[in-house]
Amino acid sequence: MSLVNHSIPDSEICKKATQLVAAVSPTFLCHHCIRAFLFGDLLGQRDRLKYDRELLYLGAVMHDLGLTERFDGEQRFEVDGADAARAFVLEHGLSDEKAEVVWDAIALHTSGGIADRKQPEIALVHLGVSADVLGMKVSDMTRETVEQVLEAYPRLGFNRAITELLVSQVKRKPQTAALTWLAEVGRCCVHRFILPTWNEMLDRSPFAE
Prior knowledge:
- By secondary structure, the chain is mainly alpha-helical.
- It has helices at residues 2-6, 12-24, 27-46, 53-61, 77-91, 96-107, 120-134, 143-152, 158-172, 182-189, 198-203.
- Helix 4 crosses helix 7.
């Protein structure tokens, strides 16, 4: 779609980030990351926000690097991805200050109530991801525009595929799910999934009260 493709920043670092994501991600995940940018950008334009579209794109397109085999470490996937993206943008000439914005956007992209209070590039990555995963604020966009985005970057069974990726995270490193939204993924989708309760964690502390 010419309208959609024209919306994607074409700076050298953005092109290289797209190439990286396409190389390490399954197609459904790569499409999701680009849709997250497009939806976030549409919401930013709607609200007439002032933001750096290149930073928004870098944060959005790389926000799920931590779910890929190459960058999946022992931390929460959001933090693994944020670390990988920061290293990438620094290597390709972005300033430390801008690299921190990319890190925050990725590390906080699942943190509703926090990310949306941050600067626009960070907030819009969160909103773009939320729009694509949960449909939040999609009704604020025109139906024609949403259809163009979906035609250019099809979902390809996204709901099932992303759930499988998240379940694999919970199974492999359940400690990172404790006290996070991933605990709900575990409870819903992983047989006999058990995490310590709040009271159990308090009982393990060295303090009597």
